């Protein structure tokens, strides 16, 4: 009896450090924010307000705009990045490639750079100033200087460029892992059957790495839905909220405007959206398997 | 079953321990982040030390005052200045939790009503006694903002932002422009055109997208005597005054005499240092920034009265300023009050405030010899005296949640300037948006 108790207790003991931190910093805030999402905060007290915060969020033009912006960024950024990832991963997988290790390391480096630092560098490269790096480069091709953070689409494109720069290498390494799992025999057999490199790529490579690509897409979708640092530092959500993301809205509402209730309600709307999207993506993956 | 209870007890004990650990860590890290205390070294300390949360230049300013104060009054605990960020990101959670609140903390004057509303007056210490003693000595609108609904003061006014026109004397002179003749904005804009024709010079800098600054709207609105609310206390941004202010902003832009500062604070400094921004209408607290961040241009700048909307019109306005509030959780209320009296009401304290460009709101300070001294950065002008004449503006009602009004203003400003939206429509939309957010807070 005592032995059995011990055996049951020991795993828990090992888990305790994690569980304690998890309960305090994850579970408790997550559950408590459900409570907060049904309250407003006034004179130091939370007062129950029913569904008012959720109603407000669904009718708030700024929130709806933030949702729209986030999806626009996602729909542009994720396909471009995934395409680039597949190309880069295949390049890194070339058998004859020299300095393989260096190229792999270089493509992974952007993720290691702090998000704040790279955002500041990007905002300097792409400033409105006609003499900024991006405008000078465009000038070489005869393009007029662009007011990057004052115009809707340049601002959005700027964010897409920044996020893509940071995450393409990371996702390429994931896809590279998939590529290296493909048995070489398949290519040899295909070559004997007379399939060219293009045919091989579409008939062998792509189907084999589909699950890995989908995994990378799921990661990127979740990542873009939670985008905050880049729009906050590079565009400040501007011009006129056209690059305001959902998380930025939550931050502004909760920590600038004191509306903890609205921010919590919005956070749950976001969580549900991510859950639905992830569910759909998982279904897609399963069917293909 | 027994095991489960055991686990539960164990976990809750661990949780309690960790929590206690957090508390201990938090207080010791505040102690570690102190700045000014080290210099003062009075041996006997009767009461507990107090922490004052402030930011940037203002915190440097308070550190110098605290150093003097500690040296003179070190027998009832010491004053320690903590450097925090100006977004209150550490302060707000502490106030919401009701623990770990600094004894004294700085806020922008327009934000203090929101703090009163959010955290309740019981979160603050009544310091009416140090204000009521000579209430008439304070600049009226500054004091008004600190007064709570119950007529008591839970915060003390610190600096204010009387507005004047900053200009480059050398460039104005070289182009034959006499600043004394720029009595109206129309004349100011004409001078701007002349300067623009002579070189890459601008006489104003606005943040076109509205996301990093709306200062010009606040300055003009206050100059026109406008408010953000109607008589019933409802948000009203589409007032006649706001529309008139917007018209002026558009006039500046149409004339091509204003430059865009996307990242308002940094870009304004850069534009001044680049010699592009040669004049602008701005508050007194910018003097400290210019002295530090544009040091190479010392002696080339001067200050004069701002232009009016029409000949003979009002030439005073106020933008910004800050206050210091006291937490009711302080262990040493007497020391808090003594320090605030010293920092805000004594000549020694106000000399330091003046030195750092934090323009005092306590008017006896305007009679000190230090205040009246000539300022070499501004070509030997007695700049403080010029600004002191600009403090008679009517009080602005900031309402219970100005931050919501300000957020809605951001969108309207960008819509009007960048997207060419109709001002009346854009301000009406902002009005509705802001009121909706305020209503939700009950």
What is the tally of helical segments of chain B? Answer: 18
Arithmetic mean pLDDT of chain A: 91
Low-confidence stretches of chain A: none
Tell me the helix content of chain A. Answer: over 70%
- Whole-number average pLDDT of chain B? 88
The CATH topology of the largest domain in chain B is what? D-Maltodextrin-Binding Protein, domain 2
Overall number of domains of chain A: 1
Task: Identify low-pLDDT runs of chain B.
Answer: 1-45
What's the CATH topology name of chain A?
Answer: MetI-like fold
Q: How many separate structural domains of chain B?
A: 2
Q: What is the overall silhouette of chain A?
A: globular
Bin the helical content of chain B. Answer: 40-55%
Beta-strand percentage of chain A? Answer: under 5%
* The CATH architecture of chain A: Orthogonal Bundle
The CATH first-level class of chain A comes to Mainly Alpha
Can you characterise this structure?
The complex is a heterodimer of chains A (289) and B (442). Chain A has helices at 2-36, 52-59, 61-92, 100-112, 115-125, 133-140, 152-180, 184-192, 197-225, 229-235, 246-256, 260-288, and strands spanning 39-42, 45-48. Chain A has a two-stranded antiparallel sheet with strand order 1-2. Chain A is built from 12 helices and 2 strands, in the order αββααααααααααα. With 442 residues, chain B is an alpha/beta fold. Chain B is built from 18 helices and 9 strands. In chain B, strands 1, 2, 3, 4, 7, 8 and 9 form a 7-stranded mixed β-sheet that branches. Chain B has a two-stranded parallel sheet with strand order 5-6. The model of chain B is unreliable at 1-45 (pLDDT under 50). At the A-B interface, helix 1, strand 1, helix 2, helix 11 and helix 12 of A face helix 1, helix 3, helix 4, helix 17 and helix 18 of B.
């Amino acid at each position: 009896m005592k032995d059995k108790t011990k055996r049951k207790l020991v795993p828990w003991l090992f888990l305790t450090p994690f569980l304690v931190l998890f309960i305090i910093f994850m579970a408790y805030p997550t559950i408590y924010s459900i409570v907060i999402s049904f309250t407003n905060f006034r004179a130091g007290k939370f007062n129950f307000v029913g569904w008012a915060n959720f109603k407000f969020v669904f009718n708030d033009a700024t929130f709806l705009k933030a949702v729209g912006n986030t999806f626009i960024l996602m729909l542009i950024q994720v396909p471009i990045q995934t395409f680039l990832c597949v190309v880069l991963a295949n390049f890194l997988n070339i058998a004859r490639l020299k300095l393989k290790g260096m190229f792999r390391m270089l493509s992974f480096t952007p993720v290691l750079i702090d998000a704040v630092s790279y955002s500041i560098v990007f905002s300097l490269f792409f400033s409105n100033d006609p003499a900024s790096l991006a405008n000078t480069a465009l000038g070489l091709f005869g393009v007029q200087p662009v007011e990057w953070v004052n115009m809707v689409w340049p601002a959005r494109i700027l964010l897409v460029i920044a996020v893509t720069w940071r995450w393409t290498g990371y996702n390429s390494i994931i896809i590279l892992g998939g590529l290296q799992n493909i048995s070489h025999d398949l290519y040899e057999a295909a070559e004997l059957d007379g399939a060219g490199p293009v045919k091989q790529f579409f008939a062998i490579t792509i189907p084999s790495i589909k699950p890995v690509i989908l995994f990378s897409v799921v990661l990127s979708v979740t990542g873009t839905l939670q985008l905050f640092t880049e729009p906050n530092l590079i565009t400040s959500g501007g011009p006129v909220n056209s690059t305001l993301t959902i998380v930025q809205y939550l931050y502004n509402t909760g920590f600038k405007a004191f509306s903890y209730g609205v921010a919590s309600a919005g956070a749950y709307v976001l969580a549900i959206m991510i859950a639905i999207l992830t569910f759909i993506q998982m279904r897609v993956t399963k069917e293909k398997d | 079953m027994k095991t489960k209870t055991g686990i539960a007890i164990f976990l809750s004990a661990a949780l309690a321990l960790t929590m206690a650990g957090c508390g201990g860590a938090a207080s010791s890290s505040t102690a570690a982040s102190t700045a000014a205390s080290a210099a003062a070294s009075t041996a006997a300390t009767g009461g507990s030390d107090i922490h004052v949360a402030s930011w940037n230049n203002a915190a440097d300013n308070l550190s110098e005052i605290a150093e003097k104060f500690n040296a003179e009054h070190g027998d009832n605990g010491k004053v320690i200045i903590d450097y925090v960020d100006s977004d209150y990101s550490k302060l707000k959670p502490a106030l919401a939790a009701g623990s770990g609140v600094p004894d004294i903390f700085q806020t922008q004057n327009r934000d203090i009503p929101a703090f009163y509303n959010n955290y309740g007056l019981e979160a603050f210490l009544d310091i009416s006694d140090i204000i009521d003693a000579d209430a008439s000595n304070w600049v009226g609108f500054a004091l008004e903002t600190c007064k709570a609904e119950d007529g008591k003061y839970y915060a003390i006014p610190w600096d204010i932002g009387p507005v004047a026109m900053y200009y480059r004397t050398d460039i104005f002179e070289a182009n034959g422009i006499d600043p004394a003749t720029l009595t109206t904005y129309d004349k100011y804009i004409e001078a701007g055109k002349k300067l623009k024709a002579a070189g890459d010079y601008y006489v104003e800098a606005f943040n076109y997208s509205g996301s990093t600054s709306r200062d010009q709207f606040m300055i003009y609105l206050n100059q026109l005597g406008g408010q953000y609310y109607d008589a019933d206390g409802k948000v009203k941004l589409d007032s006649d005054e706001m529309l008139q202010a917007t018209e002026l902003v558009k006039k500046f832009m149409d004339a091509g005499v204003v430059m865009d500062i996307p990242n308002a604070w940094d870009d304004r400094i850069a534009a001044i240092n680049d010699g592009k921004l040669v004049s602008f209408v701005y508050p007194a607290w910018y003097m400290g920034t210019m002295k530090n961040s544009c040091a190479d241009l010392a002696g080339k700048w001067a200050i004069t009265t701002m232009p009016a909307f029409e000949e003979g019109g009002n030439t005073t306005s106020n933008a910004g300023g800050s206050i210091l509030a006291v937490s009711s959780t302080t262990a040493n209320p007497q020391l808090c009050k003594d320090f605030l009296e010293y920092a805000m009401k004594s000549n020694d304290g106000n000399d330091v405030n003046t030195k750092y460009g934090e323009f005092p709101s306590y008017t006896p300070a305007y009679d000190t010899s230090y205040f009246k001294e000539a300022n070499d950065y501004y070509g030997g002008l007695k700049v403080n005296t010029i600004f002191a004449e600009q403090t008679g503006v009517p009080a602005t009602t900031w309402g219970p949640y100005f931050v919501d009004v300000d957020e809605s203003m951001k969108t309207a400003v960008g819509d009007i300037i960048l997207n060419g939206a109709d001002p009346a429509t854009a301000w009406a939309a902002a009005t509705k948006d802001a009121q909706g957010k305020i209503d939700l807070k009950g």
